[in-house]
Amino acid sequence: MAIQANISFLPHQRSQSFLDSRFGIHSLKPKLNFTGRILERRKFKFCSRSSADREEDYLIDAPVSIGDGFSFSGGKFSDGPSRSDEWFKQGKYVKAHPVFGTGEKAKDPIFGLTMGGSSQASTDVFRWFCVESGNAANPSVVLIHGFPSQAYSYRKVLPVLSKDYHVITFDWLGFGFSDKPQPRYGFDYTLDEYVSSLESLINELDLDKFSLIVQGYFAPIVVKYASNHQEKLNNLILVNPPLTEKHGNLPSTLSIFSNFLLGEIFSQDPLRASDKALTSCGPYKMKEEDAMVYRRPYLTSGSSGFALNALTRAMKKDLKGYVKLMRTTLSSDNWKVNTMVCWGQRDRWLSYDGVEEFCKGLKHELVELPLAGHHVQEDCGEELGRIIARTLQPDRSGVRGM
């Protein structure tokens, strides 16, 4: 039964309303969850007015079990398979890093309402969404996405590398299909927690020797992990990392999510949290089908937004110290890992000033991509894959990693 109503939306709900009206949500077919079980559906019929002041009706058709009551949830944007569904089928869940909490049900930080099932973290060990490609007998490569993004950003790199390497990429906790625990209910999104959780995941993946590729603001976290596990690493490739002291400040596009109350609201807006964060930092022009993959976590529940909000506050507080530590680590005589920096020169967030001097002084290889921005793997995915493959070539000769 369809219920017709006029509704006043919260800011984050207006974004969902905008998306639904833009793409049209008309499907009434049963929707399957990832286990194949048919879920009960709620059907709502909303009225909206166009610029010509005429009514348009459209349907929101979401499973009852999806969503958390804090933000609009679910919705089916087409009858056919989406890129998000196709990407999910390529991956698997890996359990790693214990939950340090009381087991209490998570509540949203604004109203104190208990969050729904999709916003509740695992009670024992967190689930990480991982995509694996290539022959496991080949040298291993781990691709790590930046902030904010998803493993999906490496979709163009995977086919290039998987010909000769065993490639793994994953969604960080709080992103994509991985668990998104509510802050203060098992994971607080501090940078130290991300270091320890990365260690747990790599231990669970049971990799002996491997190479690490990391993009953007997660680079200092990965370097801190790497500094304690150099014996495991063949190569380290940093893609547009925050290398200089000036890079320790988040751009306004991201720092706004750390603002009191305003951050909680804006982080629930998929157009601001996803689209703007991906397209404002370089020349990247998102296709609509790719944009829907990145929006999906923010449309499904409020947990993605609260994770973004918590991590941004942690970055704003501790990023400068982590950048300084990364510079010290990479400059140390004790650093023995072959290191390369790959830089998209059209990065609007991180200035190129000082990057070349830093790399030359330490004899770290620097590769420049004139047409790429901050998210190099989005702008020049295949080219980045070839650059990585060339850098890792010694692994194929048996010198390392075999």
From TrEMBL:
<dbReference type="InterPro" id="IPR051340">
    <property type="entry name" value="Haloalkane_dehalogenase"/>
</dbReference>
<protein>
    <submittedName>
        <fullName>Alpha/beta hydrolase fold-1</fullName>
    </submittedName>
</protein>
<dbReference type="InterPro" id="IPR029058">
    <property type="entry name" value="AB_hydrolase_fold"/>
</dbReference>
<dbReference type="GO" id="GO:0004301">
    <property type="term" value="F:epoxide hydrolase activity"/>
</dbReference>
<feature type="domain" description="AB hydrolase-1">
    <location>
        <begin position="139"/>
        <end position="379"/>
    </location>
</feature>
<keyword id="KW-0378">Hydrolase</keyword>
<dbReference type="InterPro" id="IPR000073">
    <property type="entry name" value="AB_hydrolase_1"/>
</dbReference>
<dbReference type="Pfam" id="PF00561">
    <property type="entry name" value="Abhydrolase_1"/>
</dbReference>
